[in-house]
Amino acid sequence: MVQYTLAQSPETVFTVAGKDSVKAREKAMDQLIELMDAGTLPTELTEGFSPQQFIEVKETTLPATTDEDAVTHAVQVLSNLATLKLKLQDSRTEALQIRAQIDILFSDEPVSEEEIATLKEGFKVLKTYAQSNLRYKEARIQAEQARIVLDQALNSAEPESKTAKASAKNTN
């Protein structure tokens, strides 16, 4: 499920099945038109509105239907963080080398077509690295919550074992 809102009316949320996509935004647009036709939209969109203007609402908390589901989700979030971290580390060195080459564009020194061609090819690596870095930072925030959920689940098992040890000592 993906949720969208409007900058002009953040309290209005449109929920659509699936992930953020052109099709999902079009479905949210259909919901927006229904609200406008019904006259229940708390704001007027006098300048018009397009599906690209929807703001995706991200969940900041882990869904916790049951403790077991929360733990499963927490492990998935942490696994995703591990994958993103590896991807980031793999492309970091190359991206930093390319980043250093960008400075030639700002110097007064002459640049060959080969240098520019190499630099342009490197932009793909930079883009991938930068996007991975943003995803990693976002995933890390979610992983902090996941770590808390996991720690709580692990700590909830500890008192039982302490209780069992205490009762074992009392029976001896």
Structural summary, described in words:
With 172 residues, the chain is mainly α. It has helices spanning 22-38, 67-101, 113-171, and strands spanning 2-6, 9-16, 55-57. It has 2 domains: 2-57, no CATH class; 67-160, Helix Hairpins (Orthogonal Bundle), CATH 1.10.287. It has 3 helices and 3 strands. A 3-stranded antiparallel sheet has the order 2-1-3, with helices on one face. Strand 1 (2-6) and strand 2 (9-16) form a beta hairpin. The chain starts with a strand and ends with a helix.
Helix content: 55-70%
Largest sheet: 3 strands, antiparallel
C-alpha termini separation: 55 Å
* Mean pLDDT across every amino acid position: 81
Helix/strand-derived category reads mainly alpha
**CATH architecture classification of the largest domain:** Orthogonal Bundle
- The strand line-up of the biggest sheet is 2-1-3
Radius of gyration: 25 Å
Keywords:
172 residues; mainly alpha; 65% helix
Fold blueprint:
Blueprint (H helix, E strand, L loop, with lengths): L1 E5 L2 E8 L5 H17 L16 E3 L9 H35 L11 H59 L1
Antiparallel strand pairs: 1-2, 1-3
Helix pairs in contact: 2-3
Give a concise summary.
By secondary structure, this protein is mainly α.
